[in-house]
Amino acid sequence: QVQLVESGGGLVQAGGTLRLSCAASARTFSSYAMAWFRQAPGKEREFVAAIRWSGGTIYYVDSVKGRFTISRDTAENTVYLQMNSLKPEDTAVYYCEERSSYISDIPRRVSGYYYWGQGTQVTVSS
Asked: Which of 56, 63, 70, 107 falls between 20 and 30 A from 46, CA-CA?
């Protein structure tokens, strides 16, 4: 069982920045990949970014490339999402998700992950 706790959301003006954190805890934590998804009101949860826990592979959805950066701290079992140049369309609840078992490629669908946190609200005003 893995517990994920997101933090760092808030209200920011367009063009601003936020840094989301997701702390993972388990009796023995060993991850394969972690990802950020987001869900806006009335919309399906969508992929934002993912990172292989051992390093080397990162994916982003096209709409955030060049603005968002995913990273991880393996010593702290934490994954981050640095969000710059925020836009009103980035407004959503952001969820951290985790997968512990190997798969040939890092998933970019919700179904590819086993655990997720409670989410953190990001609101970008125009």
From this structure: 56
Minimal CA–CA distance to 19: which of 3, 36, 34? 36
58 vs 61: CA distance, rounded Å: 10
Looking only at the bridges linking them, the beta strands covering 18-25 and 78-83 are: antiparallel
Per residue in 34-88, pLDDT tens? 999 999 999 999 999 999 999 889 999 999 999 999 999 999 999 999 999 999 9
Contacts of residue 106, defined as CB under 8 A and 6 or more positions apart, other chains included, come to: 33, 35, 50, 51, 52, 57, 59, 112
**98 bridge partner residues:** 34, 115
CA angle at residue 98 from 96 to 100, to 5 degrees? 170
pLDDT on residue 27: 73
Report the DSSP beta bridge partners of residue 33: 52, 99
Per-residue burial over 20-36, b if 16 or more Cβ lie within 10 Å, else e, is bbbbbeeeeeebbbbbb
Per the CB < 8 A criterion, the answer to whether 98 and 31 are in contact is yes
